[in-house]
Amino acid sequence: MALNFQNTLTKQKELFKLADPENKRVNFYACGPTVYNYAHIGNLRSYVFADVAYRALKFDGYQPKWVMNITDVDDKTIRGTIAEFGEKAKVDDLKKYTEKFTEAFFADLDKLNILRDQITFIKVTDVIPEIQDFIVKLIDKGYAYRADDGSTYFSIEKYQKDFGNYGELVGDKFLEGKKIGARVKVDEYEKDNLSDFALWKAHAIDDAQIFWDHPVLGKGRPGWHIECSAINQKAFGDQTTDIHTGGIDLIFPHHTNEIAQSEALNGKKFVNYWLHAEHLLVDNKKMAKSADNFYTLKDLENKNFDPIIFRYLLLQTSFTQKINFTWESLNSAQKGYENIKNKIKVLGSPTSSEPEVGLQETENYLANFAKNISSLNTAGALGLISKIFADKELTASQKLDLIKSFDQVFGLKLT
Ligand code: AMP
Ligand code: ZN
Predict the structure, then answer these.
(1) What integer pLDDT is reported at residue 194 of this predicted model?
(2) Smallest CA separation from ligand 1 atom 7, residue
(3) Helix, strand, or coil here: 241?
(4) Quick check: CB of 261 below 6 Å from ligand 1?
(5) Based on the domain organization, do 270 and 307 belong to the same domain?
(6) 359 FRET partner, CA 20 to 30 A, in 101, 154, 320, 337?
């Protein structure tokens, strides 16, 4: 099957190729969660997306190595830790605070049948020396500097002078009409405020006792973007990351800055294929706690929905399109899913002896499935299931075999 991914970097569908076609190993990185709270169902869409991409690679005979970061230190995790452990909270308290959300995240992955046991998780607090090392090397190369406020920033001006591709993930003309200059310490900011971003944030009074010390960088903690560059480096060494995934809101600034940091350090392409999943909306609005439309898997379970129904709902729409989540849509997904399961039950116990038929028909279905899945078109691939049920040429066991085989990628526990 010729995998064909919509690459955010080139804005087109591209044939998936490895640098060395003989080597089937794929360096596969998915941006992971910030564990300051329970994941909402929008977050979970981006992990189901990564899981389908990973399964499609395996289905096609690749051996992807899947790595995911766990962001267990940032403004939000520190705020949560202080709320729970008080003004004197230390790194150990931060670890305790984030541990319960990390475990809850793992449980969510399991409920959605995401292949958790095949993922190498790397917590940010476990790679602080690697992050510090990365930053010091950037300083040595002239791409980072320690400012008066004690924090260390990435110099976009220097990077742009040497590489000329800052913001290419957003678009060719990203820098047009923008002034480079100001500095920004917070992790998330808008495109209009193009700023040198913090790699190492100096310890501040509102961080309690949560900091790491370093002879060059001083007391502080990593900014958000540097962790993923450092973790890619740790996991894949000097090799280019083949595939990097996330939700579309990560294109800027997070992924844009990951590219700048890693390319500044290594002087070569950081990632070949950038894959981004569109957002999940609730009642046509962005999910927000304040809007009372913030759902977790627990909320779905409390209404007696098995989380796998949510996975089925996600797979019914292309990942390049927004999904508007409503309870009605989840209800109809449940009906559709149960209908498939019931039909499979009947197939599982064929009553009469079945006639021998040729293989051509099943080959056609497999080819059609591969065509859809090669571009991660799960909606199109799911559509084949009803055709298979209705097909009079196929025997019950052929139907069952086909669905079993498709389910390696769907991960819907159909059989
Ligand atoms: P965070 O835990 O905030 O770092 O986000 C984890 C992942 O969820 C990232 O890949 C985000 O892009 C993604 N994400 C956040 N909100 C949504 C949403 N409403 N729909 C889909 N993905 C989202
Ligand atoms: Zn990341």
Answers:
(1) 78
(2) 43
(3) strand
(4) no
(5) no
(6) 337
Distance 300 CA to ligand 2 centre (A): 27
What's the pLDDT tens digit per position in 193-227?
678 999 999 999 999 999 999 999 999 999 999 99
Count of structural domains within the chain: 2
Residue whose CA is closest, atom 9 of ligand 1?
247
Cβ–ligand 1 distance for 33 under 6 Å, the answer yes
Q: Report the alpha-carbon distance of residue 100 to residue 176 in Å, rounded.
A: 44
The protein residue whose alpha carbon is closest to atom 17 in ligand 1 is 42
Please check whether residue 281 is in contact with residue 324, taking contact to mean a CB–CB distance below 8 angstroms.
yes
Same domain, residue pair 92 and 184 = yes
Determine the Cα–Cα distance for residues 228 and 357; give it in Å rounded to an integer: 52
Amino acid at 23: N
Is 181 inside any structural domain? yes
Report if residue 329 sits inside a domain.
Answer: yes
Q: Which residue has the tokens 């003309």?
A: 173
Are 203 and 339 part of one and the same domain?
Answer: no
What was the pLDDT predicted at 353? 59
Pair 332, 250 in one domain: no
* Gap from CA of 83 to ligand 1 centroid (Å): 24
The pLDDT > 70 percentage for the chain reads: 96
Which pLDDT does position 19 carry in this prediction? 77
196 shares its domain with 310: no
- Give yes or no for residue 31 CB within 6 A of ligand 1: yes
pLDDT band at 299 (very low <50, low <70, confident <90, very high): very high
Angle at 190 between CA 126 and CA 36, to 5 degrees: 35
Range of the domain at 199: 20-277
